[in-house]
Amino acid sequence: MSDQSSFDASALKARFNPEGSMLRRHQLRMLEMVVELDRICRKHDIPYFLYGGTLLGAFRHNGFIPWDDDLDVALMRKDYLRLLEVLPDELPEHIALQTNDTDRNYFFFIGKLRDRHSLLEEILPYDEVFRERGIYIDLFPLDRMPLWAHLLSEPLQGHTYKIFRTSKNRERAMRKIRLITWLNRHVTFPILRLVGRASFSSTVTCDYGIPYHLIYRMEDIFPLTTHEFEGVALSVPGNSDEMLRRMYGDYMRLPNLDHLDIHTKRLVIDGEEMCERG
């Protein structure tokens, strides 16, 4: 980590996401989608909140982390399921909902909203088999569960990633992946969910099958409040400071700017091929 806890915001923007750049246009398209999501959630009284690096960006940069090329929101699982019910009737034509139900080859256990006027190719090739491949925002369901049960769920679904990466026959691999995903979704994870409820666990983490298991507290999430993100007031946890410390430690310090993780390999927006990131 860098020792830098204060920074020149304009210099970071000039280096990573100046106006008109591939990354900035990517970010603005994600911003359009999260504003639409915010509208829908407010209309239906569905609580959501910025999450992960997006929450970090809100508090450290009042918007996107300058080099960030994804956007994360989270909901408690019951609210996530309500959202999935209303989105098909609420989303404009150019935004698609992507889940196990809408895309037979989609084997993640988070939902996505996908922009249909773009094409995104990521460094990790999982998206090659998805129906919707545009710019996206991630929808993370969180739930109460014992940590051991969540840790058990990770390799059960994580095995699909290994099959995808190592198989020389993509069609055969996807048959296996679809079967494992169906079994986890309809058999294994419902059993784990029943066990989790019976344990009366107070641990909140990502839902089963999602490969992240940081522990949160309900009292740090609720009641929600709002914070500025790219000039828009969006929903955030009531105790975002504690949430961010659990995720990142001293989150106001910048990381090593020469070793950053990015997802995007190629991007086309409105039919225009974007330049590669530097």
Care to describe what's here?
Helix 5 runs antiparallel to helix 6. Strands 1, 2, 3, 4, 6 and 7 form a six-stranded mixed sheet that branches. Strands 5-10-11 form a three-stranded antiparallel sheet, covered by helices on one side. A two-stranded antiparallel ribbon has the order 8-9. It is of the alpha+beta class. The mean pLDDT is about 95. The chain is built from eight helices and eleven strands.
For this entry, give a set of tags.
278 residues; alpha+beta; 6-stranded mixed beta sheet; 3-stranded antiparallel beta sheet; 18% strand
Give a quick summary of the entry.
The chain is an alpha+beta fold and 278 residues long.
Furnish the topology, listing elements before pairings.
Elements (H helix, E strand, L loop, with lengths): L8 H8 L5 H23 L4 E2 L1 H10 L10 E5 H14 L4 E4 L12 E5 L2 E5 L13 E9 L2 H20 L3 H29 L5 E3 L11 H4 L3 E5 L2 E5 L3 H9 L15 E6 L2 E2 L5
Parallel strand pairs: 2-6
Antiparallel strand pairs: 1-2, 3-4, 4-6, 5-10, 6-7, 8-9, 10-11
Helix pairs in contact: 5-6
